[in-house]
């Protein structure tokens, strides 16, 4: 009864606010009609290249073209969006990225395609029309993004749990306004849930004092693959698109009409070969995200900074922490931030933090931020769900390129509105913004470039334009992959949702397994649907390093760093054959990729939980019990165990495990990497497991099982159980 009264009261309170925003929302309705017209135009734009050019051909195009209309610096979402917008307007376009496409912020997002509920709250509370307009535009772009790449994106219901009665009308009004501002682009209408229904849909929720919940809809996507799809689409429309092409400086010439120096191109370096060359253009666009100011200073060393970088950390946990198709929003954390808790790629992603940071190409997640996120997650999950530090499978930090408000000291109050600026020498800079609005940002940037540099081109044609893989995709496409090629259903679904209608090209090059089923498709690691053929296809998609494969062509590094490390040797072998790598080059790639996992993807925190200085907080009886287990393997009482010791025990109980698997199992615990596990290391491991700092250790499971099975002679499980970093 009380619940119904609260809902009725909510309707009365929200009526006035809804009427107010309804009037504001009318100004943009004409844009929906305009968008429909532009979508018809987009359908008429035909890609000029059915066959994707190789990277070598793209580099050659950069070197041999006398002058481009537009050069875009930066291969993130915005830069690739600018290249696609320019190319589809018929402009001769070049796109240069220092590392790999989406190697920076664009691959390290919350994976949401959203208008920004919190920004709408600020717009209404502060009567900020600019903030409101940003949310309105983002909601329109959200609908476009979901339509342009349906294989990479989908609507996601997000639950807002309510623990105080007064919050129900407050949040209900805000969410309903969010629906209203979206207008005809609303994905699905929000709704209110009773306590029992909320727990039915999200059983992990904390039950104590739960009043009910509100569910609203936003979009979710595979951010790195979406970014890559934009880049590949630009390439198909004729843009000379090159990763690992570093801009070393800007070229300038004197304008005969004004007598002023104007930017007329860039000095470029092919990072893979070291060769440098000039690329000339009528217009140069700076779309480098957090590195915006460094490119602006190439133009003018005295120019003041316009970006204030903010670090956002995310963690990935096992999928059992959240329902398969329901996210969670914590609108007010202990320090006023917002935390999302979302299902993604059959795992659970939690984040983000928001704190000032220095600009770097290799941001590192901190233990402090990881523990903050875990602490907030604990506040919303039931007491029967133990949130363990050891369940963190991966962690990363991304740098948001926020536009600086000179009067603000707190990055949280800075809007992500984008700004387009043009320097005296003609350098066009696009800064700020958010993932969801990349297309609108690109449109505004190219419009400004056309006007400033008198380029001959029409209006933007990207509204309604299908991205790479989206043209002939359907929700049932994976069934054809299973039937025509003999792929596992899980693998087929993964390929369809990653490559869209290009999944058939991957399936065609998949290796025969030699098994009755599946017929083709050898997995890189057993618990993930990534197959070896994706590495070969990734090279065709311009992947040139092992890091490109584990983090952006597949998302293995973002899902489980231990699994990614396990897959690395095979990935390097396949890439070595495709790219003719020497043995030395293979070793370098392995080392670089492992360093990437160690520092940037949270693997370091695993070893930080198990260092020589770690405190062993075990009671004497536990220490004796674990010593006996250890000495069962260390028969010679050497003080350490090796792979030979493990093999001897397994042979005694008639169990066989591949030698390379045993190496991986010991390597997870071998802190000093000397090929053996000392007693102290083993005790540290067991202590960390008891404290929840480490979970799913295969060595611990194997040794416990061996101890028990010496009597029963049963099989010993060695599959990874989801242990974290």
From TrEMBL:
Q: In which pathway does it act?
A: Polyol metabolism; glycerol degradation
What are the recorded Gene Ontology BP terms? glycerol-3-phosphate metabolic process
Any matching Pfam family: DAO_C
Q: What range(s) does the EF-hand domain occupy?
A: 621-656, 657-692
Top enzyme class: oxidoreductase
* Record's keyword terms, sorted: Calcium, FAD, Flavoprotein, Metal-binding, Mitochondrion, Oxidoreductase, Repeat, Transit peptide
Task: Give the reactions, separated by semicolons, that this protein catalyses.
Answer: a quinone + sn-glycerol 3-phosphate = dihydroxyacetone phosphate + a quinol
**Biological source species:** Manacus vitellinus (golden-collared manakin)
This molecule's function is given as:
Calcium-responsive mitochondrial glycerol-3-phosphate dehydrogenase which seems to be a key component of the pancreatic beta-cell glucose-sensing device.
Tell me its family.
Belongs to the FAD-dependent glycerol-3-phosphate dehydrogenase family.
Protein's UniProt keywords contain Oxidoreductase:
yes
Protein name per its UniProtKB record: Glycerol-3-phosphate dehydrogenase
Q: Where in the cell is it found?
A: Mitochondrion
């Amino acid at each position: 009864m009380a619940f119904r009264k609260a809902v009725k009261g909510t309707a009365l309170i929200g009526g006035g606010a809804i009427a107010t925003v309804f009037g504001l929302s009318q100004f943009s309705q004409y844009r929906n009609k305009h968008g429909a017209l532009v979508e018809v135009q987009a359908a008429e734009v035909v890609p000029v290249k059915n066959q994707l050019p190789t990277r070598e051909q793209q580099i050659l195009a950069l070197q041999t073209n006398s002058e481009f209309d537009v050069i875009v610096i930066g291969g993130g979402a915005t830069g690739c969006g600018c290249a696609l917008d320019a190319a589809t307007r018929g402009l001769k376009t070049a796109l240069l990225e220092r590392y790999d496409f989406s190697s920076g912020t664009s691959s390290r997002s919350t994976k949401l395609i959203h208008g920004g509920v919190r920004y709408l709250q600020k717009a209404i509370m502060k009567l900020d029309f600019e903030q409101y307009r940003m949310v309105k535009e983002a909601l329109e772009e959200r609908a476009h993004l979901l339509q342009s790449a349906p294989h990479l994106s989908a609507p996601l219901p997000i639950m807002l749990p309510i623990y105080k009665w007064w919050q129900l009308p407050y949040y209900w009004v805000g969410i309903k306004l969010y629906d209203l501002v979206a207008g005809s682009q609303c994905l699905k209408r929000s709704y209110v849930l009773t306590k029992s229904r909320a727990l039915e849909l999200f059983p992990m929720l904390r039950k104590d004092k739960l009043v009910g919940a509100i569910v609203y809809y936003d979009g979710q996507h595979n951010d790195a693959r979406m970014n890559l799809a934009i880049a590949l689409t630009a390439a198909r429309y004729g843009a000379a698109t090159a990763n690992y092409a570093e801009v070393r400086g800007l070229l300038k010439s004197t304008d005969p009409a004004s007598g002023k120096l104007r930017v007329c191109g860039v000095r470029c370096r092919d990072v893979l070969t070291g060769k440098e060359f000039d690329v000339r253009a009528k217009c140069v666009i700076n779309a480098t995200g957090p590195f915006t100011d460094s490119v602006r200073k190439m133009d003018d060393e005295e120019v003041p900074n316009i970006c204030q970088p903010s670090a956002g950390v995310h963690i990935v946990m096992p999928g059992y922490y959240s329902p398969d198709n329901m996210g969670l929003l914590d609108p007010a954390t202990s320090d006023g931030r917002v935390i999302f808790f979302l299902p993604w790629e059959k795992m659970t992603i939690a984040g983000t933090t928001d704190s000032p940071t220095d600009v770097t190409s290799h941001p590192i997640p901190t233990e402090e931020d990881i523990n903050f996120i875990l602490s907030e997650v604990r506040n919303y999950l039931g007491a029967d769900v133990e949130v363990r530090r050891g369940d963190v499978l991966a962690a990363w930090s991304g740098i948001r390129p926020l536009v600086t408000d000179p009067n603000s000291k707190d990055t949280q109050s800075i809007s992500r509105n984008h700004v387009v600026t043009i320097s005296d020498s003609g350098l066009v800079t696009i800064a700020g913004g958010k993932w969801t609005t990349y297309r609108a940002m690109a449109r505004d940037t190219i419009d400004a470039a056309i006007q400033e540099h008198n380029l001959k081109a029409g209006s933007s044609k990207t509204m309604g334009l299908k991205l790479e893989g989206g043209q002939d995709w359907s929700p049932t496409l994976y069934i054809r992959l299973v039937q025509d090629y003999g792929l596992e259903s899980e693998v087929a679904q993964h390929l369809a949702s990653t490559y869209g209608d290009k999944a058939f090209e991957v399936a065609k090059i998949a290796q025969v397994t030699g098994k009755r089923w599946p017929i083709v498709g050898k997995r890189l690691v057993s618990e993930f649907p990534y197959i070896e053929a994706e590495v070969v296809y990734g090279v065709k998609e311009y992947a040139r390093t092992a890091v490109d494969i584990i983090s952006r062509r597949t998302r293995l590094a973002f899902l489980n760093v231990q699994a990614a490390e396990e897959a690395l040797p095979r990935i390097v072998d396949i890439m070595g054959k495709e790219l003719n790598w020497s043995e030395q080059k293979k070793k370098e790639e392995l080392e670089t990729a492992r360093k990437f996992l160690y520092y940037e993807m949270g693997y370091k925190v695993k070893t930080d939980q198990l260092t020589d200085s770690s405190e062993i907080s075990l009671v004497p009886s536990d220490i004796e019990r674990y010593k006996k287990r250890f000495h069962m393997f260390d028969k010679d009482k050497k003080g350490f165990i090796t792979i030979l010791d493990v093999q001897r025990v397994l042979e005694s109980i008639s169990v066989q495990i591949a030698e390379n698997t045993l190496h991986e199992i010991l390597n997870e615990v071998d802190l000093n990497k000397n090929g053996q596990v000392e007693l102290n290391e083993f005790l540290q491991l067991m202590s960390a497991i008891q404290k929840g700092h480490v979970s799913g250790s295969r060595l611990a499971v194997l040794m416990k099982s061996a101890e028990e099975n010496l009597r029963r002679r049963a099989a010993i499980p060695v599959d990874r159980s989801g242990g974290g970093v």
